[in-house]
Amino acid sequence: MRSYRELVGSVFMRSSANGAALLACVFAAGLAAGAGRAAAQGAFSLTSTDLKDGAAFGKAQVYDRNDCTGRNVSPELSWRNAPAGTKSFAVTVFDIDAPGPGWWHWAVAAIPPSVTALPANASASGYLTKIGAVQARNDWGDEGYGGPCPPPGKLHRYVVTVFALNTADLRLGPGRHALMFDHEINTAALAKASLTVTYQR
């Protein structure tokens, strides 16, 4: 016969094993629920009614000077599934095929976290100023959006990116160069989503 001490020890060991198993099950269920919520939420993403990933810019978004005859209208952009902790958004448009370091066409910061879309022509219409956003000086030398107008011949790719940022104050003033915007935006980025659009003359 086992002693009283042996019986108590046996019961304790079974209880401990059952408790550990229960805790493991609860922990696993919690991880699965968290993963399920993340999957349901989806990744931070960017869409546009004016632009299609891999396709060419429409005439409306093309620059309206330097022998280009577009309308220079900034594109409609929409985004979803911003990460937790997002305090503002920023948008950039950059030509990665321009000679040298590339060409900045647009940079916008301080878009409020409640805003998840920019209407077409947000740059020139006054919409961005109304919501408190600030626009950089692009490489055309203008504040705001300046559409594509590359030299004739080569196809150029333009990366359109929305950033979710961990701050609402990048301390950027309107009219500062887009390169300065880019540096501050990337320093505060929690996530980003992009479309690549083309144009050729």
From TrEMBL:
Pfam families: PBP (PF01161). Transmembrane segments: none annotated. It comes from Trinickia dabaoshanensis. Residues 1-40 form the signal peptide. InterPro entries: PEBP, PEBP-like_sf, YbhB_YbcL/LppC-like. This is YbhB/YbcL family Raf kinase inhibitor-like protein. Keywords: Signal. Coiled coil: none annotated. The keyword rRNA-binding does not apply. The keyword Signal applies.
